[in-house]
Amino acid sequence: MSPRSRFILLTLLTLVISAQSTWAIPAFARRYKVSCTTCHAPFPRLTAYGEEFAGNGFIMKESEKERDYVTAGDKMLWLNKDFPLAARFDAFATWDSESEATTDLQTPWGVKLLSGGTLYRNIGYYFYFYMSEHGEVAGVEDAYVHFDNIFDTPLDVMVGQFQTSDPLMKRELRLTVQDYEIYKTRIGDSSTNLAYDRGMMLVYGIEQTGTDLVGFIVNGNGIPQSGAEKTYDSDRYKNAGLRVLQGFGDLFSLGGFVYIGKEQPASSTYTNEVTYMGPDIGIGVGPLAFTGQYLLRTDSDPTFSDGEEIETSGICAELIYMPRGEQSRWMMTGLYNRIDSDLDVHDFETWTLSGTVLVARNLRLILEGTRDAEREANRLVFGVTSAF
Q: Which domain range does residue 359 map to?
């Protein structure tokens, strides 16, 4: 057994021992003795209360009591009596008309361990460890500490590792197997996209006007493999972004996003300046919820060869139908992805229709069909997603 395998096995054994009997239901529901429907409709999609709960640093403030923690008589210490731990398991069977392996049993497609909760008053944490993703150990993806209502103001600060697309459409919370492609696409040899990155995110809400402001500064090169110098950033530059969201009651929201970055690989004397900008819209009417995103990405030299400027536009549009609202046992999702780039290799267009049925609050079945217009291929997915 390799040293890495022994380390992973030791880590898992430690988590199992510390969890004891707490694996019965997901960590937050177990901690507060509430149903999954309090925050999810269905999981992992968040309800309005779930968004508030996450925004509070995974803390239900009305339920937080000092007696629920180990304080040891120290007012500056709040230790969870039980270490909150949960797991997620995804397994799929796929059929792809143009794949070399037409049928594929992706069982499991992913297994992850999750933990989150309170560190202290108005301070929370969240992380998960991907034990298996696409058959490989992916390691830690989301991992951050959340400071809520700093100085009794509507300012929140998150420090750690997160997705820079989270203020737009949260990839980890989607109901479809098909991804939101424009967020994870890298252009040419660029290492920049809107998926996972390391840095700091600031969130400020203006209650009087219903306006939310989200700003962040990140390394800009994703989650790189460890290099010889063990540095996280691959150059001297930092990237920054800002998202403004204006709500109009509970039915309509309109947002705008801008992202500015610069990168220079160690092996090149050329730099690439990256910008994203674009609007997004959210509409909720009865059983229907629509989210739409348009992004224009511009790279000054993504091949790092004194090349020409490359423009890439992306559309992501999602429509969810839940016949009984948040209490629905089944729902349908339509998802459209389109990427048009000056580098034709990145062109992408898919149409997806996905159905979800809840067998239990923490277990759902998925049947999903996708038409890939670029490959002229069809894909069918049947799967199960569970959390426990």
A: 22-225+233-387
In a domain? residue 5: no
Q: Which residues, in sequence order, are CB contacts of 119 under 8 Å at separation 6+? A: 78, 125, 145
Query: What is the count of structural domains for the chain?
Result: 1
- Amino acid letter, 10: L
Each residue's pLDDT tens digit, 273-298: 999 999 999 999 999 999 999 999 99
Burial of 269 (0-12, 13-18, 19+ CB in 10 A): exposed
8 in a domain, yes or no? no
Can you read off the two tokens belonging to residue 112?
């992850």
Provide the CATH number for the domain around residue 294. 2.40.160.10
Nearest to 280 by CA among 290, 268, 270: 290
Q: Three-state SS string across 89-155, please?
A: EEEEEEEECCCCCCEEEEEEEEEEEEEEEEEECCEEEEEEEEEEECCECCEEEEEEEEECCHHHCCE
- Is 14 part of any domain? no
User: Would 4 be classed as within a structural domain?
Assistant: no
pLDDT, tens digit, 9 for 90 and up, residues 323-353:
998 888 999 999 999 999 999 999 999 999 9
Distance between CA 116 and CA 317 in Å, rounded? 30
Euclidean distance between CA atoms 266 and 90, whole angstroms: 38
